[in-house]
Amino acid sequence: MKALVFDALKNNWEDSSGFDLVDVPKPGLSKGDEKKVIIKVSYAGVCGTDKGIWKRMVFKEQILGSLKEERKTKRIIGHEFFGEILEVGSMVRGLKPGDPVSCESHVVCGKCYQCKLGEKQVCTNEKILGISMDGGFAEYVKVPSHIVWKTDLKKIRPEIAAIQEPFGNAVHAATKVDLKGKTVAIFGIGSIGQFLTTVAKGLGASQIIGLDVNKKALDTGKRLGLDQSILLKQGKGYKQQPDVVNKLRELTAGVGPDVCFEMSGHNSAVNNAIYSVRRGGHVVLFGLKNDNFIFEDFNRMVMKGLTLHAVAGRQIWHTWETTRGLLEDPKNGVQKDVWNIVLKNGKGTILDIDSFSKKTFEKMMHENSKFLIKF
Question: What is the pTM of this model?
Answer without folding.
Answer: 0.93
